Amino acid sequence: MKLHEVRVHPSKSLLKRDDQLAWKIAGVAADKVAVEKDVTAMIINRIIDNAAVAIASINRGPVVSARGMALGHTKRGGATLFGLPGRKTVSPEWAAWANGTAVRELDYHDTFLAADYSHPGDNIPPILAVAQAMERTGRDLIRGIATGYEIQIDLVKAICLHEWKKDHIAHLAPAQAAGIGALLGLKQEVIFQAVQQAVHVSFTTRQSRKGEISSWKAFAPAHAGKLAIEAVDRAMRGEGAPSPVYEGEDSVIAWMLGGKNAVYHVPLPDKGEPKRAIMDSYTKEHSAEYQSQALIDLAFRMRESIEDFNAIKKIIIHTSHHTHYVIGTGANDPQKMDPKASRETLDHSIMYIVAVALQDGSWSHVDSYAPQRAQRADTVALWHKIETREDKEWTRRYHTADPSEKAFGGRIEIQFKNGKTLIDEMAVANAHSLGARPFGRPDYINKFEMLTSGVISPRESARFLDAVQDLPKLPAGELDRLNVAVPGGALLESKPGIF
């Protein structure tokens, strides 16, 4: 990997194209280096993971709406939609919209956390949609997905968006554009323009994840995918983009991020170096914000030592800056303590999550968020006894580049009314690559079968799993086999709109 310094340059300096971050990103995408076997295997795992959570959310409100919108843009020889038969296709940007929403709705797929946050599995829907519409091979798709993961994760390692209250899709859209460019084998010049266009149109605020969190949280990454496909389409037609999009006087860095004196150092693979960033990411065993994964597992362990929940006086979660200020009491969001809050808000309340995990010793993507569960009197009482505090050591471990020290958990201190305390800590979730039970292929398959049981037929399940595990051998025109269909008549229809 090579570190690239990125900062604002005055217009009169005429920054050379070769020195611009977007050009370097495009160079990585255009480099047709072979994808290594373990990376290919992980890509297959994440396609399985995405399909699992998409089908589990197939009739949830935002997914129904997104699918209804997409069906207003049917296209012969287009891309497939989760839930529908493979013969029903739509324009790829709308497939990316619908499928991306389905993948994101439950907040249950993969994650990478560093200087900023990301769900790099959000790269898969738009890259797959274009691959289907353009009749590419399984190997083409693998190259595109490996590139999308690489670019997003490298940006997340270097440039914090949250500090400036920008949503993390600002790193996702250029990664998706780069991944599509790699998939299609486009020239560096074309990818360069597409990446810049994708950056320019995808900066939004983090209000989507603050206060009363709405369904836009599910739509946002899908919106990025739609923008990325449109950006690549324009660039392929010869259109240019605002440039330099990162380093210019009125660029995103100058006015939306660190400002004119900011300096970032972005790691990118050298020419000929394999794209391996996907191996740094991790998926979720529990349907909740990733920073809660280890704390859920820790709560399961600690509950075994609690005889009487009414005897608890107070619970303090000592954790990282990001956990405290995003999903903890440091966010100062009263909605995070509201029993009538939306599912999206409860998913971003570590106080609620720890209370339910302590009481139940299990976690369900449905039952743990049900209104009757959130409004249970004993749960509300316990929930309101929980607070978070930043611990500088947990913050340091959150940001460290040393994988053996990196941590996304914390220490839970339970104070009882009789003066006794129960203290335990956990650095990473059990399913993390350094956890007690790292996820492997059987775990991804089990998650898929668990989430799709009763939604799709056993025959459809087996067909999909056979196809996806044979991904490197899938020929051009057969990527529709990666779609998953539910039985006829099982899909809800959306309310009418414009399309």
Descriptive report:
This protein is an alpha+beta fold and 499 residues long. It folds into two domains: 2-280, Orthogonal Bundle (2-methylcitrate dehydratase PrpD); 290-426, 60s Ribosomal Protein L30, Chain: A, CATH 3.30.1330.120. The protein is built from 19 helices and ten strands. The protein has helices spanning 21-30, 37-56, 61-70, 92-104, 124-133, 138-158, 169-184, 188-201, 216-236, 252-256, 293-303, 321-327, 343-346, 350-360, 371-374, 377-383, 392-399, 441-452, 458-468, and strands at 2-7, 74-80, 89-90, 112-113, 117-118, 263-268, 312-319, 386-390, 410-416, 421-426. A four-stranded mixed β-sheet has the order 8-7-9-10. It has a two-stranded antiparallel ribbon with strand order 1-6. Helix 5 packs antiparallel against helix 6 (138-158). The mean pLDDT is 96.
